[in-house]
Amino acid sequence: MRLAPSQLTIREIIGQLMMPMLPDTPELSKPEVWKQVVEDQEKYTFGGYIVFRADWAETPPLMEELQDLSEIPLLYSSDLERGAGQQFAGATNFPAVMSLGAARDPDLAYQQGAITALEARRAGVHWVFAPTLDLVTQPENPIINVRGFGDEPRNVGLMGAAFIEGMQRHGALACAKHFPGHGETSVDSHEELPVVGVSRHKMELGDLVPFRHCIEAGVKSIMVGHLAVPALDENGLPASMSTRMVADLLRGQMGFKGLVVTDALNMGAIAGRFEPGYAAVRALQAGVDVLLMPPDPEAVVTAVLRSIEEGGLSKARLLESVERIFQAKYEVGLWRYDDEEETGLPAVWPDYAPAVEAIAEGAITLVSATDGLLPLQADGTYCSLVLDDDEDLDAQAGWRQALADHPDLPIRVLTNADDEAAIEAAVAQAAAFGTVLVPAFMAVRAWKNRVSLPPLLASVPDRLRAAGAKVVVVSFTSPFLLRQFPGVDAYVCAYSPNPASQRAAVRALFGELPFVGRLPVNPAHLGEPTAR
């Protein structure tokens, strides 16, 4: 039977507003960790959990067991921008989101949203923190980059809305993020507070456009970022704690009625500047419903209770948020017994690989090439010199697999562990083949704080050209890498290290696939005036 928020105690109300992280499967399987999780749930009555680094087979039963132990149903969430495989080992893993932006096909975005929802629900996840609607307008942005669709507000809005429709029609809550837009920053909010120094007019014409589009499309939730935007709130508060950006702009002017969730409150932008209790109170005062990953739940409870006593927060305000949370739980089938029928979960699970391949193939973009160099001839003489910024041999599996059809094409890998002498020797050997394929791998992730190759690796294409070779660079990450080697003979963007993206790139290089992707970011930001 569905509860009414008014039936809860004040501590239960506060607990429903918090969503901590569930320990990953190896940890959660330990008896002492499981015992602590159960005890904390009984103490705080958390509204749900966010799930990271899970196992497709082992984690869902533990989630279900915790669900059964909770008197109030738990809402499970997860960051699944690239599909359920991003967190659940064994599920479908899609290419980076920018691949959809380059493919410019809303049907593919819809498919990815639908498949992600189906697999998320199979794993027990109800709420997916995707899609990313941040405009990729800043080449030095260390945290968004290929996580975004691109820099064109209309294209981002169209692709985001299609993704959301696919997801929500198949039983999961979608979440547009990171409001009001994390794209125009060069700082990772996991480490410090970014300041977006653009005008209100520019925000209205750019960053806010995709969010407006997706609100009109019916997105169920929005994540507010840890971003200071002086043009929207001159007080310098992050959006996640700003009444002007949440209550006034998002809810008031933009008319959003759904769930509002903070970005993780343990990130440096918040945890490094504010006490946990203070941050939680300010976020709730601003109009936020869900406090994601609060670093100190006890501090939150204490601070919220004190704020109610002092008149800063009211019980009525908190009940508004709990009502939205309960409504979301009801919509995804909690408190109901017909959730399987409502979400349309199939009895037999299909193979979603064709959808992954279609996105990867639709994204491959030829940015520039000298006449006659591409496509490569199958019987030509080539060498491949891989640039691997993360020293992750698994990341290159698709490249090696695709080149297996070209057994005479030698592959050599260069990493950050290689010194000047090793790189010089590799360049000399590779240049002798005449044409060198240079795939570049560099993960965009939190706390890395850069989206460019280190200087020694970045020097390889220029060294090859100086040695007389023709150089074909394929970026399996940021399209902005071209800024580090603008003189290459050909530059191809695949946007993602997904094995399907690597296979598609090789097929396109050898003329087996057309280059149909379109650059989803301003070509001027790549350092060359290349037409889209």
Description of the structure:
- The longest helix is centred in the first third of the chain and has 18 residues, at 106-123.
- The chain is built from 21 helices and 17 strands.
- It is of the alpha/beta class and 532 residues long.
- The chain folds into two domains: 8-337, Glycoside hydrolase, family 3, N-terminal domain (TIM Barrel, Alpha-Beta Barrel); 355-526, 3-Layer(aba) Sandwich (Rossmann fold), CATH 3.40.50.1700.
- It starts with 9 loop residues before the first helix and ends in a 23-residue tail after the last helix.
- It has helices at 10-16, 25-28, 31-44, 59-69, 98-103, 106-123, 153-168, 200-205, 208-216, 244-253, 268-271, 276-286, 297-310, 315-331, 339-343, 353-363, 397-402, 420-431, 455-458, 460-466, 499-509, and strands spanning 18-19, 21-22, 48-51, 54-55, 75-78, 88-89, 127-128, 175-179, 221-224, 259-262, 291-292, 365-369, 382-388, 411-415, 435-441, 470-475, 490-493.
- The protein has a six-stranded mixed β-sheet, covered by helices on one side. Strands 2-3-5-7 form a four-stranded parallel β-sheet, with helices on one face. Strands 8-9-10 form a three-stranded parallel β-sheet.
- The radius of gyration is 24 Å and the shape is elongated.
- 38% of the residues lie in helices and 13% in strands.
- Helix 17 links the parallel strand 13 and strand 14.
